[in-house]
Each structure stands twice: as C-alpha cells, then as structure tokens.
Specification:
With 218 residues, the chain is an alpha+beta fold. The chain is built from 5 helices and 8 strands, in the order H-H-H-E-E-E-E-E-E-E-E-H-H. Helix 1 packs across helix 2. The radius of gyration is 34 Å and the shape is elongated.
C-alpha cells in the first residue's frame, strides 16, 4: 500500500471514528497523516521561496537570460560557478595585497645598484639582493623594500608601566604593535623571538596602518 493510500485510510478512520491513539494501528496512521501534511507544507514553502527568488533576481545581469519566473534549477550550475569564482577572486586579492612589497622610506642610491639605508644610525650599505642589519629591509634591483609593512606579528593592549617610561599617564594602557626585526642585538631582550627573527620565520597578520589607527582609537 502506498503512502498516499495509507494517509487516505487514516483520514477516513480519524474522520469517522475520531480515533487518534486508542490502538497502535490508529496511532501509526495518525502519525503518517501529520507527516504527509508536514511534507506538503515544506514543499509549498520551498516552491514559494524559489518563486520569489527567481522573480527578484530576474532583473540581475547574471539571471536575466533565464527569464522571469523560470525554473530555478536551471540557474543552480551557473550560480555555483559564480560563487566559486567570486571566492577565488577575493582570496587572490587579499593574498596579492599581503605579498606585495612596499618601497621603503629614507634611503639613497649609490653605485652599481648599491644603496644606503638612512632609517637608523647604522646607515647600512646594502648590495643588491641583500638585507640590512635589522633583516627587514632588502635591496631588490637597486631599490630598498620593507618586508614588514602592514605585517605585525604582535598586537597587544599593555599597561603603560610595562613601557620604558617614567610616571607617564600612570594606570592607563598602551596599544602595542610589533613586527619582526631590530637594529640592536641585546642579549637580555625579552622579545628576542621576534626581534631577532627574519620576517619569513614568524606568522603575521596583514593589517593596513589605517586599520591599526582605528583600533587604537577604539
């Protein structure tokens, strides 16, 4: 006996006998009736939702070729492809922004693609393909690039007393941001894991300076 026949028999019993739970057979039939009605309601809601979606999206360029009120199943392969391409594009954009190096400031060109960094008192003279003492500025083809722009490896909110300041805004906090590299090699450095590391040795979070300022002001 099919599901529909059982449901019709159950409806007849319930309508004529008013039985819902007096015996196991009646209880099972009543359950099947409720299940059938629930399935039909869900199918109706799904059909209405698909119809509204197709009507709203009929004016969009991606769906215009299908026509208003067309079967939504025709759009599903194209929709999946569109979403995958959109995801790949967003990932490629974010990765390219993070991997793109920024030309550093404060340096001058010398002879034969050699440059001199002028950011700190060390004034490193850097041949092509080499880095300065800090390890985060590299000469690439006669131009100096920073390897840590927008790539902090530590972002913390610290008590102000942790900083090398005396009686400066006591009991307040400081927004601390750090990248790899340092122009010193102190043997007692508490942050030696990042200060003496190369940029490619430590994981970072790509955050533009503008966003860091917004976080500091929060």
């Amino acid at each position: 006996m099919s599901f529909g026949a059982v449901a019709q028999l159950g409806e007849h019993l319930v309508r004529n006998e008013g039985v819902r739970g007096s015996n196991p057979l009646s209880s099972r039939i009543f359950f099947l009736i409720k299940e059938k009605n629930s399935v039909l309601k869900r199918a109706a809601r799904r059909a209405n939702r698909d119809k509204r979606f197709s009507e709203r999206s009929a004016n969009l360029p991606l769906f215009r070729r299908f026509g208003k009120g067309q079967n939504l199943s025709l759009m599903k392969p194209f929709l999946k492809t569109y979403l995958v391409l959109l995801l790949l594009f967003s990932l490629t954009t974010s990765l390219s922004a993070a991997d793109k190096l920024k030309v550093a400031s404060f340096w001058q060109k010398l002879k034969d693609k050699v440059i001199q960094c002028q950011l700190c008192p060390r004034s490193c003279v850097i041949p092509d393909g080499k880095r300065g003492f800090c390890g985060v500025r590299e000469n690439q083809g006669g131009a100096l690039f920073t390897l840590v722009y927008a790539k902090p490896v530590a972002i913390h909110i610290d008590p102000i007393e942790k900083k090398p300041l005396f009686n400066f805004l006591p009991s307040t906090t400081a927004f601390s941001v750090a990248t790899t590299g340092c122009n010193l090699k102190c043997k007692f450095c508490q942050n030696w894991e990042i200060s003496q590391a190369k940029p490619e040795e430590v994981e970072y979070t790509y955050i533009e300076p503008k966003e860091l300022v917004e976080r500091a002001l929060q």
